[in-house]
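Researcher: Here's my situation. A collaborator sent me these components and asked whether they could plausibly form a single complex. I don't have experimental data yet, so a predicted model of the whole assembly would be a useful starting point for our discussion.
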Amino acid sequence: MKQAIHIFGKEFRTYFVSPIAYIVISIFLLVTGWFFFMTFFLFDQADLRNFFALLPIIFSFVVPAITMRLFSEELNVGSYEILLTMPVTIRQVVLGKFLASLVFVAAMLVPTLAYPISVAFLGELDWGPVIGGYIGALLFGASFSAIGLFASSLTRNQIIAFITGMAICFSLTLLDKMLFFLPQVLLGFLQYLGADFHFRNISKGILDSRDILYFLSVSFVALYGTHLALQEKS
Amino acid sequence: MIHVEDLTKYYGDLCAVDHINFDIRKGEILGLLGPNGAGKTTTLRMLTGYLRPTSGTIRVKDYTIEEHSLEIKKLLGYLPEAAPLYHDMLVYDYLDYVANMRELERNRKLSRIRDMAELCGLNEVMHQPIGELSKGYRQRVGLAHAMMSDPEILVLDEPTLGLDPNQIVEIRDIIRQIGSEKTIIFSTHILSEAEATCDRIVIIHRGKIVADSSTESLKQSASGECLINISLKNARVKSVEKALGSIDGILDLVHRVDQEGILQVSLTCRPPIDLREEIYQAIKRTKWVLLEFRQEAKTLENVFRELTSEQGELE
């Protein structure tokens, strides 16, 4: 377990040593800030519903950009060999890197706390959905981090890792919006698989165990897939 | 200390390592020699637990690689080929990270980092990113990484690859310095290096062990014979065989005609008898034109070439 924490520490620090962290965070803040406040004053309502409605789409390409280097770079440079010949298990490695990207997502969300705070000055803000939204965003970030990590473990090319991860994340986000073509029978099932569907519930301020379970199981399945992909390499 | 039995590794259909067996005793410096693609790196990677063997076992002390790979990893320090390190990290941060991963406690960690920096000559570059270091320095960081936890066994994959002659000597000195108390396995394709540093040499070729003996005895078996190479023009094979084959003391005669029609003959003989004079006299009696006449002691290099060339050097 200690090793996982050391790996987490190293990965997290590496984000902020290289410019990646600052670029990703600035782009994220720019895009969310622009889209949120572009329409905010038109609605004349003191809530963050639009911000959280945007988040799944933005996460779909920002989170894979965060995770793309975690394994691909190591596989490409060859440092993966050094990592694995230290006294660690693959599980610890996966866990450490997952934690690093999850905490990075959290760090990226911290500056956005300025939105609810400034909105609260403008009008009566209902904090319930906001808190729910942030918890949901973390769960959402966790499952997309796990998916991105999985994509990264498949290839030594960071760009391929990014595109693969983004494709999976986008499909999950848009899944429940594309269902009107499909027969009624499949509807409930496929809707349940859509990430946005569950996130909408949470960001309304409703913490349903089904939604939480959904995000946790997506994370688990993706991390397990990562574990298998890495095991296959030795 | 280390016992390797029937170790085999397939990459798909390609057999990289083919049922090899060897033992390494405590305190020994073992050189793993072989041409490129012989299976050296694969063998070392299995030894360090990075690759899983297709079949066969590796036993380190009382641990086997299948069941106790974590314990074995704790005993080993490993420097992979070309030291693939994290380019974004500072040297100090990297060594600190390695020490943490190896679970050194705080005081020991600091003193080990200091000692390793001293031993590997890293003091001037401690606060530079690894990516900006020269290859030689990177290799030294890799070496410091491998030795951080003071492991009993060091596995070094081509530690001198791509270094300039001065750096090679430095790295070799470091290896010898630590080799007095540690078990070291290192791979190389440079013979003189193995000769200079190893107690024992294992030569592998196409995944198989073709020689396994102490450096001394390998050298002795090599220096037992010498080769005399002659190039002749206007000579026919039959008459050459007749004229030279009858000289006493020639153990072996191999010949080959090159593209220009010149007959290349190499004769094996055993010192101290010097046959050069007799051979010269024999050639003088004929009408052959002598283009080249050269005697060479069979060195480790010849042995290596003989063992690892595809169809024998001279046939």
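Model: Some features of this prediction you could bring to your collaborator: Chain B has two domains: 2-221, 225-297. The two ends of chain B are 41 Å apart (CA to CA).
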